[in-house]
Task: structure prediction
Amino acid sequence: MTSIVFAKPAHLYASYADFWRLVELAGFATCRVDEIDLSKDRITITTPMNGDLVEHLNEEIAHTTEPWPGRVIWWNLEMHTTSRDSALDDAWPFIDAAWVSDLYLKGLDSRYVYLHVGSDDRLRDGPAWHRPPAYDVATMGYEDVPRRARVLAALRERGVRVAPLADGADRYDVLSRTRLMLNIGQQDTPVIAPLRTALAAAYELPMVTETLAVPHVFQNKVFQAPYASLVPEVLRVLSLPDKTLRKSGIALRTLLCQQWPFRYAVERALCAMKWKTGEYSGVRLPKRLTDRTLRSFSRVET
Result:
């Protein structure tokens, strides 16, 4: 049977730490990008697309006899375009398929395959209990992003307690005492932040995000508002009863940690994989996926 492995870049970007933690929790094998071997019958999933990866794949393609059995999937968790052109156009010569985790981005290029970034309760670095809140809002993103800084400054002016950026045990302490997660993109693009949403789900935090062009399964699971209205929307959500906020956080956790956990999302995508050659070739579902899980999938996939 074809094996599945996730290839890590030589330099692990801090913003991808939760992604690689989810890979680990899901029990997937990993390797370095310079260990990708196209001569082996395995599917390699990797992110992000950078110079080291391109250099290695270029060498592999040049020194591997066609048709090689190995396949490479690039999981694009960032933007569709670079400053020059489409990021997918740049990557396409070196990969066999590309995934995105927002339907708006998928609509920009028919070559993309869509899947959610599922989550895992164990992404929460401690017991599942809520202490008296010390913070109203967390972004778990850098505040030096101008679009983010403007909103957070306006919220602070109105007395909203903004949580600091933290990781490890400090992040657990912060998020377990925070009322909601706020998503503000670095750029004006109406998409979900998959890793931030997975983190919010693990902590059962309700989420406020900029309006999504294609909400899909996140419709009625997250609060949405245009960028210009984020401040009043955050204030409105914070004024809701705690019971309502709790219900919203539970709904997000149910979706991403129970109905659509990380490993399940990956396996479902691989089950019906279409490669750039036009060939359909999937990986068989493991027996542990029960009928109940499959029914959950049928409810969330539309």
Q: What stands out?
A: The first strand starts at residue 3 and ends at 8. DSSP finds eleven helices and ten strands in the chain. Residues 242-259 form the longest helix (18 residues).
